[in-house]
């Protein structure tokens, strides 16, 4: 698998992200889906990575800068056909490593609080994230879970 910064111009990644947005909107109530549109993922301050196997998109993830020390993980997704193969962990570890290289000392995220999102919450807990209060522009929402990770030079 190859994980690389992606400029979001390939039709395959555009279709992959449209699938992600559609799924998130179908699961989360209006006002509780915080997935970024393609145009928002292309803005300055956002770095987006795609994961590909044999040229096919199998996953993705991004970070959005909150401030010089703090970034938010966005658009984490694994292709349904490739779940339970460790792809999400590899993407997350890549994002953590790149975030440290970019100088961030903290990564945070918002994910759903419902059963559908339990595997995502377990993934983040496995990699050292802990639950936290809402950050940046977020507010308390019974449909959201907020998590954060302090980045240390030795974190792997």
TrEMBL record:
GO terms for molecular function: acyltransferase activity. Keywords: Acyltransferase, Transferase. InterPro entries: Acyl_CoA_acyltransferase, Bact_Acetyltransf, GNAT_dom. It holds the Pfam family Acetyltransf_1. This is GNAT family N-acetyltransferase. Its EC number is 2.3.-.-. Coiled coil: none annotated. It comes from the Bacteria. Residues 3-152 form the N-acetyltransferase domain. PROSITE patterns: GNAT.
């Amino acid at each position: 698998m190859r994980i690389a910064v992606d400029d979001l111009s390939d039709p395959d990644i555009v279709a992959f992200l449209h699938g992600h947005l559609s799924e998130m909107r179908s699961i989360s109530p209006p006002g509780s889906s915080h997935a970024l549109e393609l145009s928002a993922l292309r803005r300055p301050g956002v770095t987006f990575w795609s994961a590909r196997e044999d040229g096919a998109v199998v996953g993705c993830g991004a970070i959005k800068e909150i401030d010089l020390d703090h970034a938010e993980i966005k658009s984490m997704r694994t292709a349904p056909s490739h779940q339970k193969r460790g792809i999400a962990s590899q993407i997350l570890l890549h994002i953590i490593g790149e975030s440290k290289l970019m100088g961030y000392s903290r990564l945070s995220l918002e994910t759903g609080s419902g059963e559908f999102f339990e595997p995502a919450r377990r993934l983040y807990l496995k990699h050292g994230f802990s639950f936290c209060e809402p950050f940046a522009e977020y507010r308390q929402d019974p449909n959201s879970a907020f998590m954060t990770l302090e980045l240390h030079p030795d974190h792997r």
